[in-house]
């Protein structure tokens, strides 16, 4: 009888005819032996299909038995030196533990611990070591390099290995989580703080899996478009089983299967525990995740049991062991590894007398040695090898491990172990003995790091393995080797000039013209990555469908219904536009992959992601923050921006706060331009900074769908547009003067208010187009800080906004389509003694005509006039009665509800 048939001889409790069952199993074994698994799979599918067609109810199950996917007989031989790899792994474990415990032995005056995590890496060390020794290529002349998203809480292990490799010093390890003085190591993977080391931030949890899927897809995109050869590259993603509860973790797995991302490998570290306790105490997380991934079309490899279980499973003729494995829940499995062999004998094997008999000749130590798959280097290598050679599907490895493996009675598999960062001397001694670290008792209290001599077999092996794979990982490129030039400003001449008499366009239309111009650039055009979340037609960008095509790996297998139209829906295998569907988080992940391509692919790409502004930073704020950490470069465009421009959509569609959110990201440069020429100046300047100068910033620009005449660029205004404000227009000759500031579409209301002030109240005014209140504030804060820290300088720095307004007279009124806080940012830098009043759109949005919305939010021309008159009255330049007169004249209801609460 074949090994398969023997394994299949397991008797199910409800089997009514075991002989017939055995005949079917033997027939299947014969097919497998003679014709292979593909033929066997075909026959089984035909049988199931025929049974269903005949009316048999065969329920679908995406689950397989709770055993390893790869049977022992199909495991390849491990190619490495297992003894040396074990020692290296132990040294890395020790250094990781020592670093965290030493960091938390400090007693700073302000109290508090630095924190850190030992247990997550302890559970993952065997798999990380296997990848480092045998699978993960660094970039060299033969390979573009694999991209590895390391599980965020395992960073101490990466530092412990990098110390052995000579890439980090003992001083750096001694400054774990002490970064302010520039010597330390970041708590988690942070490219911003360690720009030559970490590639991807994987905390907040859930972002790593999501970003990695789109990263793998972007590698395929680059290859399809002939920009880079990515055919040999893999994206490896290490996640925790608890992390998979984050919606982002599983949110895009269907895309990975749909687009056949066989360059993508998830390794889910199923140590059964999260921060507070079990992940699925009453269930089985591996079975649950298998259903999720297999049901979505992934290749699933279960790595549950280590090699010491193989003899027991081989002798499980009646299937009792497998049945108990299946019935035992994760809360029980956790308890087994938190106790000892005697406990396992009583509570696991004791569930059935025949199981107790099967282990009667095994000592408690033998039972305790029964290992989990994620800690068995043979099994791990087999799983990694199968995953890396699989084609046509993404692969997930579900690896069962032990949280805090090797941390002894105080840490292994205990509920608090995730947070454990301190160990007593006895526990440190137990850890040393468990992993055979050659440190004497009299040195243990000092927790010295361990590093063998450079000529030791371990160190030679360590370096040889990485040399064979192209170099060390993780490693990050800070700048691309290539150099590209930004187009000159006059390349956007069509947008810089005034619109013809009677012609009106929106800034969204202006953006599309600018984008088309960049696409025509011979050098930059192929590097442009337009990204949309199913809103192409909203923004008037459907012309790009035919012009550059929508990326679709399999091309277009159908004739689009609008084929007879000029701008028909065109998908192409080498398409340039990424159409992500109704999925802002996925689109943002694609944008991040493109915006960091200079680092991960040595190819500068220029992503433009345009979306409803309300569904931008509000929905993808965590990803936007991660983009800042990753030093992303590219353009985000909030379309239909402002709280009163998207007039028919209502409360949740109208954006009055995205600029506030954008301002929280230090390297996000944000602008709210009113005119096309301002947008052109800003985009050209952004291309210069990000593409030509390779500066680590990204841009957030808001564009509107409201059409109006465009005045065109006046030469000399460029500097003010970039710095954040410039004088647009002066009007009136009255004895009283005010300064009117505005941005976005509300600047147009300010312009109308200027006319009313002159005609109705004999008040002269200057209008300032403020392209960025945020950049003005940052400039002001820079000047303020400089002056505080350089008190002896004879000439203090002056904020740009202060400098500009100091040349003017009269109170200052600022109006925007955003919350008052947006324009209020610059209040500290308004010249002293000047009135500064702010109008904004605090409150929930609602649906109505634009004019009614602006009246409701008190930002229309009439409220600008009233605010200006009130400011003049407060300065004693006009009687207060004038304000009341204006309120009556313009039909304003002074008792109307405050829009902030309405």
TrEMBL record:
<feature type="domain" description="Pyruvate dehydrogenase E1 component middle">
    <location>
        <begin position="498"/>
        <end position="711"/>
    </location>
</feature>
<feature type="binding site">
    <location>
        <position position="271"/>
    </location>
    <ligand>
        <name>Mg(2+)</name>
    </ligand>
</feature>
<protein>
    <recommendedName>
        <fullName>Pyruvate dehydrogenase E1 component</fullName>
        <ecNumber>1.2.4.1</ecNumber>
    </recommendedName>
</protein>
<feature type="binding site">
    <location>
        <position position="273"/>
    </location>
    <ligand>
        <name>Mg(2+)</name>
    </ligand>
</feature>
<keyword id="KW-0479">Metal-binding</keyword>
<comment type="function">
    <text>Component of the pyruvate dehydrogenase (PDH) complex, that catalyzes the overall conversion of pyruvate to acetyl-CoA and CO(2).</text>
</comment>
<keyword id="KW-0670">Pyruvate</keyword>
<dbReference type="InterPro" id="IPR029061">
    <property type="entry name" value="THDP-binding"/>
</dbReference>
<dbReference type="GO" id="GO:0004739">
    <property type="term" value="F:pyruvate dehydrogenase (acetyl-transferring) activity"/>
</dbReference>
<dbReference type="InterPro" id="IPR009014">
    <property type="entry name" value="Transketo_C/PFOR_II"/>
</dbReference>
<feature type="binding site">
    <location>
        <position position="241"/>
    </location>
    <ligand>
        <name>Mg(2+)</name>
    </ligand>
</feature>
<keyword id="KW-0786">Thiamine pyrophosphate</keyword>
<dbReference type="GO" id="GO:0046872">
    <property type="term" value="F:metal ion binding"/>
</dbReference>
<dbReference type="Pfam" id="PF00456">
    <property type="entry name" value="Transketolase_N"/>
</dbReference>
<dbReference type="InterPro" id="IPR041621">
    <property type="entry name" value="PDH_E1_M"/>
</dbReference>
<feature type="domain" description="Transketolase N-terminal">
    <location>
        <begin position="147"/>
        <end position="302"/>
    </location>
</feature>
<dbReference type="InterPro" id="IPR005474">
    <property type="entry name" value="Transketolase_N"/>
</dbReference>
<keyword id="KW-0460">Magnesium</keyword>
<dbReference type="InterPro" id="IPR004660">
    <property type="entry name" value="PDH_E1"/>
</dbReference>
<dbReference type="InterPro" id="IPR051157">
    <property type="entry name" value="PDH/Transketolase"/>
</dbReference>
<keyword id="KW-0560">Oxidoreductase</keyword>
<dbReference type="Pfam" id="PF22613">
    <property type="entry name" value="Transketolase_C_1"/>
</dbReference>
<dbReference type="Pfam" id="PF17831">
    <property type="entry name" value="PDH_E1_M"/>
</dbReference>
<feature type="domain" description="Transketolase-like C-terminal">
    <location>
        <begin position="724"/>
        <end position="860"/>
    </location>
</feature>
<dbReference type="InterPro" id="IPR055152">
    <property type="entry name" value="Transketolase-like_C_2"/>
</dbReference>
<dbReference type="InterPro" id="IPR035807">
    <property type="entry name" value="PDC_E1_N"/>
</dbReference>
């Amino acid at each position: 009888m074949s090994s398969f048939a023997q394994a299949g001889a397991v008797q199910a409790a409800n089997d009514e005819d075991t002989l017939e069952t055995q005949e079917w199993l033997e027939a299947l074994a014969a097919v497998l032996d003679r014709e292979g698994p593909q033929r066997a799979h075909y026959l089984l599918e035909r049988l199931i299909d025929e049974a269903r067609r005949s009316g048999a109810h065969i329920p679908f199950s995406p689950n397989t038995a709770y055993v390893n996917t790869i049977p022992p007989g199909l495991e390849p031989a491990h190619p490495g030196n297992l003894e040396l790899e074990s020692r290296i792994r132990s040294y890395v474990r020790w250094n990781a533990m020592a670093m965290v415990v030493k960091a938390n032995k400090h007693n700073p005056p302000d109290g508090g611990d630095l924190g850190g995590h030992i247990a997550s890496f302890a559970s993952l060390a065997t798999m990380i070591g296997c990848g480092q020794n045998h699978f993960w290529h660094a970039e060299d002349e033969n390979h573009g390099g694999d991209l590895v998203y390391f599980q965020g809480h395992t960073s101490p292990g990466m530092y412990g290995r990098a110390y052995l490799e000579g890439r980090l010093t003992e001083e750096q390890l001694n400054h774990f989580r002490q970064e302010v003085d520039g010597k330390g190591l970041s708590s988690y993977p942070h490219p911003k703080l360690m720009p030559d080391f970490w590639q991807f931030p994987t905390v907040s949890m859930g972002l790593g899996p999501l970003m990695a899927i789109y990263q793998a897809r972007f590698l395929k995109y680059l290859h399809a478009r002939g920009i880079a050869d990515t055919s040999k590259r893999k994206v490896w993603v290490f996640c925790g089983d608890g992390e998979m509860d984050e919606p982002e973790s599983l949110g895009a797995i269907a895309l990975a299967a749909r687009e056949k991302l066989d360059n993508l490998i998830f390794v889910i570290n199923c140590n059964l525990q999260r921060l507070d306790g079990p992940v699925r105490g009453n269930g089985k997380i591996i079975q649950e995740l298998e259903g999720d991934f297999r049901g979505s079309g992934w290749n699933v490899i279960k790595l549950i049991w280590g090699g010491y279980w193989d003899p027991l499973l081989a002798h499980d003729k009646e299937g009792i062991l497998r049945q108990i494995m299946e019935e035992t829940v994760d809360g029980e499995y956790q308890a087994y590894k938190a106790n000892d062999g005697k406990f396992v004998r009583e509570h696991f094997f004791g569930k059935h007398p025949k199981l107790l008999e099967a282990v009667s000749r095994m000592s408690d130590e033998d039972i305790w040695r029964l290992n989990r798959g994620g800690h068995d280097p043979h099994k791990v290598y087999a799983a990694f090898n199968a995953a890396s050679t699989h084609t046509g599907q993404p692969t997930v490895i579900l690896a069962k491990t032990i949280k805090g493996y090797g941390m002894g009675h105080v840490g292994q598999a205990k509920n608090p172990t995730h947070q454990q960062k301190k160990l007593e001397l006895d526990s440190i001694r137990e850890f040393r003995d468990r992993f055979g670290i050659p440190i004497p008792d009299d040195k243990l209290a000092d927790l010295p790091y361990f590093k063998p001599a450079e000529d030791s077999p371990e160190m030679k092996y360590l370096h040889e393995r990485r040399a064979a794979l192209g170099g060390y990982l993780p490693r990050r490129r800070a700048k691309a080797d290539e150099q590209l030039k930004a187009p000159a400003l006059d390349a956007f001449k069509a947008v810089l000039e005034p619109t013809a008499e009677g012609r009106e366009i929106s800034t969204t239309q202006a953006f599309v013209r600018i984008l088309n111009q960049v696409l025509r650039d011979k050098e930059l055009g192929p590097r442009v990555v337009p990204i949309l979340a199913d809103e192409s037609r909203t923004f008037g960008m459907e012309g790009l469908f035919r012009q550059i095509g929508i990326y679709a790996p399999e091309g277009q297998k159908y004739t689009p219904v609008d084929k007879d139209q000029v701008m028909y829906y065109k998908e192409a295998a080498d398409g340039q536009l990424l159409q992500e569907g109704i999925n802002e988080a996925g689109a943002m992940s694609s944008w991040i992959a493109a915006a960091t391509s200079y680092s991960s692919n040595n190819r500068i790409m220029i992503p433009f992601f345009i979306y409803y502004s309300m569904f931008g930073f509000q929905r993808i704020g965590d990803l936007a923050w991660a983009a800042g950490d990753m030093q992303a470069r590219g353009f985000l465009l909030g379309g239909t921006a402002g709280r009163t421009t998207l007039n028919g959509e209502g409360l949740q569609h109208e954006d009055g706060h995205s600029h506030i959110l954008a301002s929280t990201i230090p390297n996000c440069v944000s602008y709210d331009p009113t005119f096309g020429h301002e947008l052109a100046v800003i985009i050209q300047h952004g291309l210069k900074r990000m593409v030509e100068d390779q500066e680590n910033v990204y841009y957030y620009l808001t564009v509107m769908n409201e059409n109006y005449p465009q005045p065109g660029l006046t030469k000399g205004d460029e500097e003010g547009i970039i710095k954040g404000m410039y004088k647009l227009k002066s009007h009136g000759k009255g004895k009283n003067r005010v300064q009117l500031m505005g941005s976005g579409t509300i600047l147009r209301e300010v312009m109308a208010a200027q006319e009313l002030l002159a005609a109705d109240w004999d008040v002269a005014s200057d209008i300032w187009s403020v392209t960025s209140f945020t950049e003005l504030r940052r400039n002001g804060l820079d000047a303020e800080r400089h002056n505080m820290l350089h008190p002896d300088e004879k000439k203090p720095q002056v904020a740009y906004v202060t400098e500009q307004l100091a040349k003017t007279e009269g109170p200052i009124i600022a109006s925007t389509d955003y919350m008052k806080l947006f324009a209020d940012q610059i209040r500290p830098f308004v010249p002293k003694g000047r009135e500064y009043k702010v109008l904004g759109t605090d409150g929930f949005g609602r649906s109505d005509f634009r004019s009614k919305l602006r009246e409701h939010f008190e930002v229309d021309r009439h409220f600008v006039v009233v605010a200006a008159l009130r400011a003049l009255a407060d300065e004693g330049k006009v009687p207060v009665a004038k304000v009341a007169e204006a309120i009556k004249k313009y039909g304003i209801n002074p008792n109307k509800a405050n829009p902030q609460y309405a």
